[in-house]
Amino acid sequence: MTTDINSLAPDASYDDLDLALSEAGTGRPVLVLHGGGGPATVAGIAAHLSSTAHTLTPVHPGWEGTPRPGWLTGVDDLAMAYLRLLHDRGLRDVLVIGSSLGGWIAAEMAVRDTAGVISGLVLIDAVGVRIADEPITNFFALDARGVAEHSWYDPDRYYVDPAAIPAGQRATRQANMATMRVLAGEPYMHDAKLLRRLGRVDIPVLLLWGESDRVVTPAYGAAYAAAFADAHLEVIPKAGHLPHIEQPDVTLALIEAHARRTTNLSAT
């Protein structure tokens, strides 16, 4: 099903935000946030977890042809919008899972969650912080082959020749990247204040990292994890920036175990 955020509660500041939101399953609420590749990259996570949980998977405004209001110009705006969604739904004990850019959004949500609606966090090869000795690869500067080489353990398997992509799909991808430039292009893929704020997050955090990720390295992930008050890093062999696609069984098992550890039954 798809929900319009405007129907959730009156708030003039969000009147022009139309949020496409897929939902499935029942049980503990799980918010699944995609990265720059769009909602298809996390569809497997949402589908798997929907057998035991209530999954909510939004399309970030500006992706897949969805409208982006002019005021939505940063990841912090998305974080606040998704926190409002959880609050207005009256959801508690929420597990938030974010991949890449979605992991950044999840982290920004956690530092702003003064109401305590989030009880667990999973960041998958997330961007969002600046680590001095581990710079984030400039994704915008890479050609299609470079994207594959940096993103996958097995780049030949996942490389797609841009010439083979239908014109409409290619235009959608270009529009997605244009939106990502607006939200995360300057400063590039990070919030300079986020790293020092992560220590205030007191919920358990699981960071999952592909061993072969060259967009953000496992060393970057280790520094990210160290900034939280209660975080654990798991490095997944034979996987790159999207371990849930290259190694789904291992990744999903780790997510499920974290979900069991973090649920707050008194909140449901």
Gross morphology is: globular
Number of strands: 7
Rg over C-alpha atoms, rounded to the nearest angstrom = 17 Å
Total DSSP helices: 10
Main sheet: strand order? 1-3-2-4-5-6-7
Which percent band covers the strand fraction?
15-25%
Cα separation of the termini: 22 Å
Class per helix and strand makeup: alpha/beta
Element string (H = helix, E = strand): EEHEHEHEHHHHEHEHH
Helical coverage, percent range: 25-40%
Low-confidence stretches: 1-12
The biggest beta sheet is recorded as: 7 strands, mixed
Average pLDDT over all residues: 93
Could you characterize what this model shows?
- This protein has 10 helices and 7 strands.
- Helices cover 36% and strands 16% of the residues.
- Strands 1-3-2-4-5-6-7 form a 7-stranded mixed sheet, with helices on both faces.
- By secondary structure, the protein is α/β, with parallel strands linked by helices.
- The radius of gyration is 17 Å and the shape is globular.
- Helix 2 packs across helix 3.
Task: Indicate the topology.
Elements: E1 20-24, E2 28-33, H1 43-49, E3 53-59, H2 75-88, E4 94-99, H3 101-112, E5 118-124, H4 144-151, H5 155-158, H6 167-184, H7 194-197, E6 205-210, H8 218-227, E7 231-236, H9 243-246, H10 248-262
